[in-house]
Write a structure and sequence with these properties.
Elements (H helix, E strand, L loop, with lengths): L6 H6 L10 H18 L1 H14 L2 H25 L13 H8 L3 H14 L4 H15 L2 H14 L3 H18 L3 H14 L6 H18 L1
Helix pairs in contact: 2-4, 3-4, 5-6, 6-7, 7-8, 8-9, 9-10, 10-11
Length: 218
C-alpha cells in the first residue's frame, strides 16, 4: 500500500497490493538453479573417474578422489549453508483453497475459513487482508472489514502497509458507513501514529474537510 496516496484514493481502489513473497522464497528459487548447475558438474567428474579406473591409473584415481572430495565439500557449503533449501523458512500462505471458495461465491464459508486461519496463526496477515477484502467488496460486511484491517495493521511489521490498512479503515467509516465522526477519529489516530507519513498534508486536508462538513450539517 503506497502511503503517498490519500485515503480517498486508497478506498476506491479495488484491492490491496498482494503480499510480496518473503526473501526465503526468492532465495529458494535462486538456490535451486545453483544446485542444478553443481549437479551438472558431476558429469565430467564421473567420466574422469571412470577413465581412471579403466586405465588403472593410480595417480589419476588420487586426483579424482581429491576433486570429488572438493566438489562434495563445495556442494554442502552451497546447498546447506549459503543457499539452504528453505525447509526452515516458511513461505507466505496465500490461502488459495479459501480463495477458491470466494471464486465459487461461497462467501460465508470463506469468511469463516479466514477467521479460523487468523485465530490459528497470530503472524498471518494475509488472512486478515483477504478477509477484509472479501467483507468489504463482496459481503458489504463493513464491521468485519474494519476488524480484519485493524488486525492486519497490528500484525504487520511494515510501516507502509500498517498505514495502508489504517487508511482503509478510515475510508470505510467515511464512504461506506457514512460515519464522519469515526472517520475523523481514525484520521486523528493515523496522524498521531504515523506523523512522518509522506501524505500527512493530504490526510490533514481530508480531516479539515470532514470537520467542516460535519459542523455544517450539525
Amino acid at each position: 500500500m503506497d502511503p503517498a496516496v490519500s485515503y480517498r484514493t486508497v478506498t476506491k481502489s479495488s484491492w490491496l497490493s498482494p503480499i510480496r513473497p518473503d526473501p526465503g522464497q526468492r532465495q529458494k528459487q535462486k538456490g535451486m538453479g545453483t544446485k542444478d548447475q553443481l549437479l551438472v558438474l558431476r558429469i565430467p567428474l564421473v567420466l574422469v573417474t571412470a577413465l581412471a579406473f579403466f586405465l588403472k591409473s593410480t595417480p589419476l584415481m588420487l586426483v579424482g578422489a581429491i576433486v570429488w572430495l572438493g566438489w562434495g565439500a563445495y556442494y554442502i557449503l552451497i546447498t546447506r549453508v549459503l543457499l539452504p533449501d528453505g525447509a526452515s523458512t516458511p513461505s507466505v500462505n496465500q490461502h488459495s483453497n479459501i480463495s477458491t471458495m470466494v471464486i465459487r461465491g461461497q462467501y460465508a464459508e470463506a469468511a469463516a475459513a479466514y477467521k479460523e486461519a487468523i485465530l490459528a496463526d497470530p503472524l498471518d496477515t494475509v488472512a486478515c487482508e483477504q478477509l477484509g477484502q472479501l467483507a468489504l467488496r463482496e459481503m458489504k460486511d463493513y464491521p468485519t472489514a474494519i476488524d480484519a484491517y485493524r488486525e492486519a495493521e497490528k500484525r504487520s511489521r511494515e510501516p507502509t502497509r500498517q498505514l495502508g490498512y489504517a487508511i482503509l479503515v478510515a475510508g470505510i467509516y467515511r464512504d461506506n458507513l457514512k460515519d464522519s465522526g469515526k472517520a475523523m477519529s481514525e484520521l486523528r489516530r493515523i496522524l498521531s501514529r504515523y506523523p512522518d507519513a509522506p501524505n500527512t498534508a493530504s490526510l490533514r486536508a481530508e480531516l479539515d474537510e470532514l470537520k467542516a462538513a460535519h459542523f455544517e450539517g450539525s
